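Supplementary Methods. Inverse-folding protocol.

Structures were first reduced to a discrete structure-token string of length 139. This string, shown here, constituted the complete conditioning input.
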């Protein structure tokens, strides 16, 4: 399947700090992991990362009619962004939400996800493997 993988703000900083929460590997390693997993599962993936909410809304809108599904780690926008939720609802593409950490066992403000309201599945707390599980959903 043709899938769009979106990573949100600060995920490009992976591996630089907070290794106990997000792991020791950097963002380039995450991208390699996603590309390799997608190839093994026979998916055609496009990877996109942005620190800007509006850019994420734009890329979701542009996915309409082009991709079969979206995998998204909205990062901090998970907990704040009605705009990203609305964009996902507008395009209506099957969306799997991924988080490296277990957002439910962290600070209270991370427990709520707007994006979950538009997602067919949410995977959290599995580190990089969560992205592979998301790719497997589309098999
Ligand atoms: O667990 C996840 O994947 C998160 O989406 C990651 C976000 C966080 O705001 C969400 O609550 C859960 C943070 C993205 C990366 O933040 C970094 C912080 C320090 C060092 C490197 C990255």
């Amino acid at each position: 399947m043709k899938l769009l993988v979106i990573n949100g703000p600060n995920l490009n900083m992976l591996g630089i700090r907070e290794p106990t929460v997000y792991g020791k590997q950097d963002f380039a390693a995450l991208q390699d992991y996603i590309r390799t997993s997608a190839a093994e599962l026979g998916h055609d993936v496009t990877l996109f990362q942005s620190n800007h909410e509006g850019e994420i809304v734009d890329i979701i809108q542009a996915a309409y009619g082009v991709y079969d599904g979206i995998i998204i780690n909205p990062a901090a926008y998970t907990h704040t962004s009605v705009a990203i939720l609305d964009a996902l609802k507008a395009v209506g593409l099957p969306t799997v939400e991924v988080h490296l950490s277990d957002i439910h066992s962290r600070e209270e403000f991370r427990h709520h996800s707007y994006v979950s309201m538009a997602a067919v599945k949410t995977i959290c707390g599995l580190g990089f493997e969560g992205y592979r599980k998301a790719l497997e959903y589309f098999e």
